[in-house]
Structure formats: structure tokens, C-alpha cells
Amino acid sequence: MHLGQLPRLGASMAYNVQVSNPASRDLDEAISYLTRELCAPGAAKSLLDAYEDKLRLISDNPLLFGVDIDVSEAVGKQVRKCQVKHYGIYYLVDEKESLIQVVAFTHYLRDTPTIIRVRQH
Fold this sequence. Notes:
The chain has about 120 residues and is an alpha+beta fold. Helix content is about 45%, strand content about 25%. Strands 1-2-5-4-3 form a 5-stranded mixed beta sheet, sandwiched between helices.
């Protein structure tokens, strides 16, 4: 499953959302883990639905969620975090281009600052 760029769902959506390949893989891995390892396809569907709902919310309100200080300091950019169950959507906002770039989707127990820093280089 690769979400790539989500289509605009209506005139109210001010920002386009682009999901990076690594962030798309993060989501795929989370869904696969829930489905295959935990045998919980319902939980996987619930996570995917919540993820998609949050992306729509971010698109409509890109500054709604706060800046993650640890991640932002690690990568030298202002990275925002939106909580989705036990995961976080980490994203950059380009107000000039009306663009949201999702850079990671990680479980809260992972070392997200390091993961994103490595991906930026």
C-alpha cells in the first residue's frame, strides 16, 4: 500500500499532503505487524482509518498539532507531530507552497528523532 499524494477531498482542504516513501513504508509495516504478527486485522483497519482521518485534519488545519521539540532539534527543521493511537505522524509544513510533507509514522516507543535525522541525510 502506497498512499503517495492524497487527493483533495473538497474545496475546504487548503494544503496538499505528500507522504514520503519512508513514511509510507512505516505505515505498511505497522499495518502488516498488526495483521500478521498480532492477527488483529480489525486493529489494522482501525489504525489505517484513524491515520487517514488525521491526514485530512492536518490538511485542513496544518498548524493544529504542536512542534515536536526533540525531533525538530535533531533535524534542524520544524517538525510537527499528530498522535494516532500509539503512533505519531511527523510532518513538515510548507506554508508558501500549501504543502504538508509526512516524513515518518512511528510507534511512540521508537527513537523518532534518530529515525528522521537519518532519513534527512
